[in-house]
Amino acid sequence: MLTRIPARKELEQLGVYQPGKPIEEVKRQFGLSRIIKLASNENPFGYSPMAKEAMLQEMDKVTLYPEATAPELVEHLSVHLGVPGDEILLGNGSDELIRLITRSYIRQGDEAIMADVTFPRYETNVLIDGGSPVKVPLVDGVHDLEGMLAAITSKTRMIFVCNPNNPTGTIVGREALRNFIEQVPADILVIVDEAYYEYVTDPNYLQTLPLIDLHPNLLVLRTFSKVYGLAALRVGYAIAQADVLQSLTKVKDAFNTNRLAQAAALGALKDQEYVAFCRDKNAAGRHYLEQEFDRMGIRYFPSQGNFVLVNVLRSGDEVFASLLERGIIVRSGRQCDAYPDTIRVTIGTEEQNEAFIAALSDCLK
Ligand SMILES: *Cc1c(COP(=O)(O)O)cnc(C)c1O
């Protein structure tokens, strides 16, 4: 029987997150002995042994509630990033922080500007909180910052810049982003999502943290889910001036990051050698994939992340399905709200990248 209690009308516009098929089911369906998952931009090398040790040390304390403000992790992040501790707020993944931002700042009818092809959580959360997403098309896969400025109206409350952009992997130029931040009116929040920050190797990438002191409307998002390899533990953080973060703190759950997650993140943060190792491996893998795509004559967006969006010159859904039969899981463009003739592949280990290229060549024959 259907419930008689109507949900908020904002929810009518929303779909339900479609999770991928469980790996075991795919194996059984196609009689495969192994699956290579290159679908969710997870770290193929796993996580630092120092994070594991830290979690093991913490195991016996899970009876106690976590520290609500994660003081030890914040203190280390503060030193690592060179920003005061009261300018850092931890979240249950950066996903939660995006929700806290829209919940704190979006009023009914407010507009939020974002790229037309970008991380879908911005749009979803703006809609849930009664706002209107205003989408500005990417130009050659890159944020059109001029176009985003031009889209500002009296209703604009916030602008999202995903840098590098998921799913295209592109970054915006250093000067262009700096000028943009300077031109956005001070009563509009600028959110720069840097989930893939640690993977960037292009020197033309803006370091945003030094700008926070000058711009009380700037908020930067980072995460332990990608290069640190701790996606399941759900730890992200926001960096912004203290009064912005105070608003988010008011709406967050008290114990939003758990004990094991805080311990693991701290252990992972202390192992910057591991981060450098993953960054180097990823850059080499990215180079390898790009060379192979060039050789195959297919185009892709130049990526600074740990994934590449490739134009497969036919339905991305079909290529997704043929790769799946061959034991390789990617995302089709449609699955990540991007162009229908693309797939997004996460950069894996050398062996995984080679298996992917072999399978893709086979599919595109
Ligand atoms: C993966 C990703 C996130 C989510 O990170 P969590 O910290 O795991 O919630 C945020 N933004 C972008 C652009 C991402 O690709």
TrEMBL record:
As stated in the Swiss-Prot or TrEMBL entry, residues carrying the post-translational modification N6-(pyridoxal phosphate)lysine are K226
To which species is this protein native? Alicyclobacillus fastidiosus
Spell out the protein name for this chain.
Answer: Histidinol-phosphate aminotransferase
Family of this protein: Belongs to the class-II pyridoxal-phosphate-dependent aminotransferase family. Histidinol-phosphate aminotransferase subfamily.
Going by the entry's taxonomy, the superkingdom of the source organism is recorded as Bacteria
One Pfam annotation, family name? Aminotran_1_2
Is the keyword Phosphoprotein assigned to this protein?
no
The record describes its quaternary structure and partners as:
Homodimer.
What keywords would UniProt list here? Amino-acid biosynthesis, Aminotransferase, Histidine biosynthesis, Pyridoxal phosphate, Transferase
What reactions does this protein catalyze?
L-histidinol phosphate + 2-oxoglutarate = 3-(imidazol-4-yl)-2-oxopropyl phosphate + L-glutamate
- Gene Ontology terms for molecular function: histidinol-phosphate transaminase activity
Its EC number(s): 2.6.1.9
Pathway annotation: Amino-acid biosynthesis; L-histidine biosynthesis; L-histidine from 5-phospho-alpha-D-ribose 1-diphosphate: step 7/9
Q: Where is the Aminotransferase class I/classII large domain?
A: 35-360
